[in-house]
Amino acid sequence: MCASGHMELYEPDLGLEPYRLGILTLPPVDVSGPAERVLGRIAEAVSAQIAARRLPAVLGGEHTVTLGALRAMVRHYGLDFTVMVLDAHLDLREEFEGTAYSHACVMKRALDLGLAVRQVGIRSCSVEEAKLVEERGLCPVWAWEADQGGQWIEKSLQGVSGPVYVSLDVDGLDPSCMPATGTPEPGGLSWYQVNRWLAEICKRHQVLGLDLVELAPMTHQPAWDFTAARLLYRALGLALRSGQPRPGWD
Nearest 5°: CA angle at 48, between 229 and 228? Predict the structure, then answer.
């Protein structure tokens, strides 16, 4: 079953049907072969959509696909944007299982590009990653901070100026509402917490692009496919509804 083809398309709290703002689904990028070649193809595909003045939205399994999209963003917009990340993990390893292109390394690669990274929902990391957070002065919002209420959304956006790229790793959600992912961690953000965070981002900042990654569908259990489809659909609705032009638009 294709979840996106069986959803209700009206979002009551947004007061619109996001698809009417324009959503184009393109064929998948060829992901066979070495990682560097695959990332090159993803970067070219995203670049083509930026050149066509569209809002690129990338769907992937491995979070590594984000790196291809970010390379395209840097090519077109330079380094003057912030990567806003929902994730259970910091993904700041230098390498993992013998490769620098693992899902566990993707945000370290973003830092290596020279980009600013802000993460929410974090609750798992290595000692080395924790040290890097301290050394680089990074300020992730740990999941337990969000659970305690308060100003966690403000913390995640503090000091962020200019446009953003949004990366949605579904394991940032609590497994009670998203168990269908390769590396689930207990204690994540709720559906409504994530949506409030997204709404605030889109209210304050231009969204240059976005992605949704790390869904691992469960046979005979389509509920989580619908959760992922709805999250992407809402993110597109929020980003497009803002009406904020992306750089290069007339």
Answer: 10
What is the radius of gyration, based on Cα positions, of the chain?
A: 17
What averages of pLDDT result for each successive group of 10 residues across the chain (250 residues)?
Answer: 86 94 94 96 98 96 96 97 98 96 97 98 97 97 93 96 97 97 96 97 96 95 95 96 56
- β-bridge partners, 47: none
Distances (CA, A) of 187 to 92, 118, 147, 225, 246: 20, 19, 9, 20, 35
Q: Which amino acid is at 145?
A: E
Neighbour tally for 80: CB within 10 Å: 12
54-241 CATH:
3.40.800.10
